[in-house]
Design brief:
By secondary structure, this protein is mainly alpha-helical. It is built from ten helices and no strands. It is rod-shaped and about 100 Å long.
Amino acid sequence: MGEWEITLGEAEARPAAESQTETRLSLDQAFTAHHRLVYRYAYALVRDGALAEDVTQEVFLRLHGHLDSAQQAGMLRPWLLRVTSNVALNVLRTRRRAASRDEAFEIETLQTRGESLPDEALERKARIARAQWVLGKLQEPYRSCLLLRHEGLSYREIAGTLGLKESCIGSLIVRGRNEFAKLYKEVGQDT
């Protein structure tokens, strides 16, 4: 017995001869007999319980309108599974389109506000992380001179903070900037 045969209920695993007879089921009987099969197949396609229930409900609503034609030549189960596949794929397609529209709307909203786009924000974070890493690699007093100057301190204030001569601060800042630019460029080429 195969894996699928074990999971089918009694109503779903009728002998082939019985399924080909012209017994017509009411909608309630068809629902009772095939609900689990339709739900399991829908769940396998959409991977979401609530969405699988919605798909299952839609399938049986469609069956209500096509009950006689769906049962011709004993083809109710194949008809239900085909409709389940079509409905599930349409639902997934609709969700993808909605997600795409939502993303486009969000990007447009960010652009009109003048905010960074998600990709730009990620690039900005990467540049900041790279700059912090390079600053960490700079030798002292270059790193401290650059950071304090960036904070807006004057040469006199930097010299007083670091205990250095004021006349040296300008050259330390220039050397620090050059070293920073060199390391930053090297790190950028490695990535």
